[in-house]
Amino acid sequence: MGAIETQVTWQYVCKVTEIPVLGARVIERSSEQGGNVAVFRNDRDVVFALLDKCPHKGGPLSQGIVFGERVACPLHNWTIELKSGEAVAPDVGCAKRFPIRVDANDVYIQM
Amino acid sequence: MSTPVKQKLVVVGNGMAGIRAVEELLKIAPDKYDITVFGAEPHPNYNRILLSPVLAGEQTIKDIVLNDWDWYSDNGIKLVTGKQIVDIHRTRREVKTDDGDVVTYDRLLLATGSNPFILPIEGKALPGVISYRDIADTEAMIDAAKRYKKAVVIGGGLLGLEAANGLKLRGMDVTVVHVMPWLMERQLDERAGKLLQQSLEAKGIEFRMQANTEALIAGESGRVAALRFKGGESIPAELVVMAVGIRPNAALAEKAGLQVSARPGGIIVNDTMQTLTDPRIYAVGECVNHRGTAYGLVAPLFEMAKVCANHLAEYGIGRYTGSVTSTKLKVTGVDLFSAGNFQGGEGTEDIVLSDPMGGVYKRLVIKDDKLIGACLYGDTVDGSWYFKLLREGKNVAEIRDQLMFGESNIGDVGHEGNTKAVSMKDSDEVCGCNGVCKGAITKAIKEKGLFTLDEVKKHTKAASSCGSCTGLVEQLLMFTAGGDYSATPKMKPMCACTDHTHQDARDAIKAQKLLSVPDVMKYLEWRTPNGCSSCRPALNYYLLSTWPKEYIDDPQSRYINERAHANIQKDGTFSVIPRMWGGETTADELRRIANAVDKYKIPTVKVTGGQRIDLLGVKKEDLPAVWADIGMPSGHAYAKALRTVKTCVGSEWCRFGTQDSTQMGKDLERAMWRMYAPHKVKFAVSGCPRNCAEAGIKDVGVIGVDSGWELYVAGNGGIKTEVAQFFVKVKTSDEVLEYTGAFMQLYREEGWYLERTVHYVSRVGLDYVKSKVIADAANRKALWERLQFALDGEPDPWFDFDKARVDTRQFIPIKQITNTAADAVAAE
């Protein structure tokens, strides 16, 4: 791989504890910047980040119910895998995912 | 870490039941087994039920394939077709094929299906004599129809009649020979059987009833040429189809020393689909005998397959407890449905509708106030509803007078009042909520091989929102996938996370004094770590309603609307509806609302049907400020809770008014607001029987009369308009509060989550509710007190954030990326 691509920028987001357990918070970005990003935390303190836009009709995934490693979109109940952003079958679609790194209690994102 | 060695699963039988079990297994444990499937037929798995439409020329073999060859290779399954397993060596765990190959297994699944029963008569093996079981038989019939003219079908059951119909459509002269006095005697009573015979005669099929076949006679070519009855008479027969029944194919199992039933036949299995003799060997499908019954319909087979897969995956959950089945004849133009015990017997009573000229006959069999059987001919629209009543064992005493006319499970709105799915065009909309038309549903059923309502819901979204088109979708399933579409009689589990029902969860929470969602899941052995978006809100409500003041509400187990205390809209903004007691407001309130609309640039202001004002398009971050500025209580328009109390102006102004309905409405609203319930709750109070507040379609409707108040309950103005039923007449407004509160508390304590009052009352019966609330005064007072106890000190979530456990962090972004910040990052 070329050396140019290895340059990675991690941005600080928040403390893990600032995200509700089995819940989400929102990183606000304008639509020119690609729109909001949802940062999820499950009950084992694993943190995930997806574009806050359901592949179905654009519902804000950050507002959905989180369970296991999935979130249910609040608009029409599509279920999205938090790890991959993929819709659970038989629905088909994918929400863009963002790499997350957790250092101790600190959450970093690559956008 | 080394990868664990996969176990070997060998499946004997490449039919619907065996492959369904494999499919279920792949869904939950795709990497557990190396799978080998043996199939005697040289075809991949196909839908055997649809052979009749193939014979009739309505579909092709290609249409009915369920899993094509690629499916097997894509899933790493080794498929061996055209070979039979002739031996099982249980101690060595080996199976042997007819050409001598030996394959070992860790687990063995027998799905050998059934064999057609061949009458032991002279000439049974002649060329031109066939049974009707598989693709080869179907192709032989299609071929014979091209070359011969005279066909005889022995057997006037489901299969025989479908064969006769197909052969007739292919141009043959067909005679059906039946030993019994009427057709399909196992599915129809005499009158329906006779009606069926008439309509098939009108299609040109001939019948010889109560006729015993003695021999089949060969012609000069050696092929069958005639059929001789006992008594000596003969009829010409160039093709003879024997369709006199099937027998479970248990020969292989019997040879291997597995316990097999003598009658009705079949490999004996337990509730986990393991053979009684050898727990390493499973059996599913038509070859099985479960609790003394051998099934020949598809829904039970699929239930078995699911349970079997769960055990093969070592999930250790799920039991098969038997099925009630229904039958539908796949002869185009003949509408026929039967289920349960339609013949009646001791202690049963019949309700019968008979219109021979119109070609309609319906018989409902009732025992102990429950529907136990139904036989419908000519008009089967309500078949799925009757079948549901029958499976659920619901008490029908109260609806007995309307039972015969059908409830129409089909709903009133959203699909132009269509009740017959067959007569709809492919472009007609079936599901008005999700915009799914008939063509899309039938296409999905065919292409994806769907068999159950749940599968259709998942794949097409039809019937998955309001559910009013469920009946239509079930009909489409019947016509498209064939056979029966329904599940076992057991109560439905809450969701895929558990096998427990809503009632199980309620009972456990109460009996075990469970006080948190994780505790309930642990106690009831939930399969998933923290449930799903369907069960968690339900459990949270059950805990809240069972243990008020003790249970600590879990906002993360609530739907977003109840977490943000506003209604999410399609663009992610929210709507705000403040409470206006009894629909009355003031200039001051309106000014504050107007100011907030300007200040927060709220795009739409709408008057609701419930006499309130809806502010639409509020940004989430503005919600707390909008609430504070308006300074009115939460209208709970977003919650499963008391919403509006609609009133007319009443005696204070109206020249007809007999009672002060506005004040009554305000009192009811003040007494019961903040009340969470299984679903939303709406009241209305009218001051006279002109009923301007439309009290007849509310959960509780109160109508003032000169001598007091009449209470109506369990109305609904939504998907399906339900008129509220008269409940009680009382004298004073205090009594209105007490009776209403008691009814509400009963519903709150016993209703299942997302069950409206109309569904709750129809489940438990209005008489039951009356016995608890009207007849038993002490219980009524106790219920009313419990409701007041639960509501006492409940916070207004728009103002008392801490007490209402509103997580205010949700209104603030965790991080804001401004353009300059983004530029800086890009430059880094």
In short:
By secondary structure, chain A is mostly beta strands.
Note down, in words, how this protein is organized.
With 111 residues, chain A is mainly beta. Chain A has strands at 11-15, 23-29, 37-41, 47-51, 65-67, 70-72, 79-81, 97-98, 100-103, 106-109. Chain A contains no helices and ten strands. In chain A, the strands form three sheets. A four-stranded antiparallel β-sheet of chain A has the order 2-3-4-8, with no helix packed on it. Chain A has a three-stranded antiparallel β-sheet with strand order 1-10-9, with no helix packed on it. Chain B is elongated and about 105 Å long. Chain B has 828 residues and is an alpha/beta fold. Chain B has a five-stranded parallel β-sheet, with helices on one face. Chains A and B meet through strand 1, strand 2 and strand 5 of A and helix 17, strand 37 and helix 25 of B. Strand 2 of chain A pairs parallel with strand 37 (815-817) of chain B, so a sheet runs across the interface.
Secondary-structure map with pairings?
The complex is a heterodimer of chains A (111) and B (828).
Chain A: E1 11-15, E2 23-29, E3 37-41, E4 47-51, E5 65-67, E6 70-72, E7 79-81, E8 97-98, E9 100-103, E10 106-109
Antiparallel strand pairs in A: 1-10, 2-3, 3-4, 4-8, 5-6, 6-7, 9-10
Chain B: E1 7-12, H1 16-28, E2 33-39, H2 51-55, H3 69-74, E3 78-81, E4 85-89, E5 94-97, E6 102-104, E7 107-110, E8 114-116, E9 129-131, H4 135-147, E10 150-154, H5 158-169, E11 173-177, H6 190-202, E12 206-208, E13 213-218, E14 224-229, E15 234-236, E16 239-242, E17 246-248, H7 251-255, E18 267-269, E19 281-283, E20 288-290, H8 298-312, E21 326-328, E22 336-340, E23 349-355, E24 360-367, E25 370-377, H9 383-392, H10 400-403, E26 429-431, E27 436-437, H11 438-448, H12 453-460, H13 470-481, H14 502-511, H15 517-523, H16 535-546, H17 560-564, E28 567-568, E29 574-576, H18 587-599, E30 604-607, E31 613-618, H19 623-630, E32 642-647, H20 661-672, E33 681-686, E34 700-705, E35 708-713, E36 725-730, H21 733-750, H22 757-764, H23 766-775, H24 777-791, E37 815-817, H25 819-827
Parallel strand pairs in B: 1-2, 1-7, 2-3, 7-19, 9-16, 10-11, 10-16, 11-12, 18-20, 32-33, 33-34
Antiparallel strand pairs in B: 4-5, 5-6, 8-17, 13-14, 14-15, 21-22, 22-25, 23-24, 24-25, 26-27, 28-29, 29-31, 30-31, 34-35, 35-36
Helix pairs in contact in B: 1-8, 11-13, 14-16, 20-21, 21-23, 21-24, 23-24
